[in-house]
Amino acid sequence: MDYNRIKILLDKYWECATTIEEERELRHFFSAETLPPELRPYKAWFLTPEAETLPPLGKEFDLKVLQRISREKRQRHLRLFYSFSALITFIFVLLFILILTSSFMIENCCV
């Protein structure tokens, strides 16, 4: 086995950039009896039984993720719409109060 390739795969693994096939290759490598001394501490990491039993992600996972993203976009748009509506309402109420106040001031001033 090419130890340089294993070291490259280990670097990719720690960066979470390996494919499933590369992880299988690492598990196969670490299942061997003879390992270089500098790689022996990683043997227990790659021989855990749950590493092989993880189910692959299916198309339904992709659908759920895309649905959630679109739902969050809609919620963001609704929040923006409600905020904008509240701002417009506040401006109209403020203008109405200013118009009433100015007309009251004009009536009191000229009488």
Outline the structure in words.
By secondary structure, this protein is mainly alpha-helical. The protein has 5 helices and no strands. The chain has helices spanning 3-14, 20-30, 43-46, 50-53, 59-110. It is rod-shaped. The mean pLDDT is 85.
- Termini Cα gap: 103 Å
Structural class: mainly alpha
Number of strands: 0
Shape: rod-shaped
- Sheet with the most strands, sense and barrel status: none
**Low-pLDDT regions:** none
Strand content: under 5%
Q: What's the Cα radius of gyration?
A: 33 Å
Order of helices and strands: HHHHH
Number of helices: 5
Mean pLDDT comes to 85
Work out the helicity level.
Answer: over 70%
Brief sketch in words of this structure:
This protein is mainly alpha-helical and 111 residues long. The protein is 75% helix and 0% strand.
Note the topology:
Layout: H1 3-14, H2 20-30, H3 43-46, H4 50-53, H5 59-110
Helix pairs in contact: 1-2
Comma- or semicolon-separated keywords:
111 residues; mainly alpha
